[in-house]
Please model this.
Amino acid sequence: MSIPSGAQTAPSVLREGSADPERVTYVELFFDLVFAFAIAQMAGVLTDEPTFLTIAEATVITLAVWWVWVYTTWATNWLNPESRPVLWLLLALSATGLVISESIPEAFDDRRFVFVGAYLIYALIRTVGVIVAVRRASPAIAGGQYRILVWTAVSGVFWVAGCFAPEIWMRLALWVIAIVIDYLGPASLFWLPKLGASSWEAWRIRGGHFSERAALFIIIVLGESILVIGTALASHELDAGVIAAALLAFAEAIMLWFLYFAHGQDRGHQFIATKAATGPVARLSYTYLHVLLVLGLVATTHSSHLSLHAPHEEPVAAVSALVYLGPAVYLLGLFSFKRSIGVPSTSIPSHAAGVIALSGLFALSATGVLEVTLLAESAIACAVLLLVVAGDEFLWNRRSRQTTKGAI
Model:
C-alpha cells in the first residue's frame, strides 16, 4: 500500500532516522531540569555543618546521579526523542528521576528505600526501553543492554542490602561496592562469564551530540553556583563579608566555566566528532573523566554556600576540604579530560600546578598551619584559580601566535 502524496510518516525511533541526528532536542533539555534539581539537593546531603562522612555520602550520591544521567545520554544518542515512543520513555524517566532527586537529602536515612527503589526502577525502564527500540535495527546495541541488565542486577543486590544495614557506615560501605560495580561495567565492556566482553560495535555513538550533552550538564552544575549566590544575596543582610563572599563565588564560577569552555569543550567536540571509533572516547573522556568535573563543581558550589552564610567563621577541616579540594578535583578532571582528547601535558601545566597548590593548601589548613576565616580561604582558592586561568591563557595565546606564524 503506497503512502498518499503529502502524507508524513512517523519519525523513526532511531536517531539516525531524524533530520538532524546531532541536534540536542527540547525534550532532552526538559529532562535535564530534573537533574538541575538533583544537583541542588546535594546541599541537603552535605549540610551546613559538613563532616567527612557527609562528604563521602554526597560523593556516592553524586556518582549515582551522574550514572543515571550519562547512561540516559548514551540511550538518547541512539534513540530519536522526536518519535513518540522515545518521547514518552524520556518523560517517564524524568518522572522517575524526580523521585530520585526528591529523596536525595534523606537518601542515607529515612528515604533510602525510595532512593534505591527509584534508582533501580529507572535503570530497568531505561534499559528495557532501549532494548525494545533497537532489538531489530541494531542487535549489537540490544545485546549490550542485556549485559547492562545483568550488571545492574548484581549491583542492585548491594544497593538493596545497604537499605537494610543498621548503621550508616555499613550502608555507605555497601553502596560504595554497588557504585564500584556500576562503574566497572563500561570499563570491562560489560564482561560476563562464558560470554566475555562485548564488542565496540555495541557502543558506537554520535560524537557531536554526546560532547554537547556533557557540556550542557557542566552548565547545569555551574548554574547551581549562580542560584546559591542569588539566594544568599536575597536572604542575607548585605554586609561587607556577604558581598565579598558573593563576588568571590561568582569569580570562581566564571573561572571554572572559562577553563572548560574556552579551551576544552570545542577541542573535545572536534576530537570525538572526527573519530571513527567514538565509543572509547565517549567512555573515557565523557563518561568517566567528566564525573571528576561534576564532583569538583558540587564541592566548590557548597563551599561557596557555606562562605556566603558564615564568611567570618574559621572552618573545620571538612569545610576546608570543600574549599580547596573541590576546585582541585575539578582541575584534575579537566587536566585528565584535555589529555584524553590529545592536548599535550606541556600545554596545560597550570592545571597540574593548581591541583598541587590547592592540595598543599588543604594540608596546611587541616594541620593547623594555616588558620584563616572561611572568607579568606575562599579568596586564596580563588587566587589559585586566577593563576591557573592566567597560565592557561598565556600558553594558549602563545600557541596561537606560533601556529599563525607557521601558516604564513
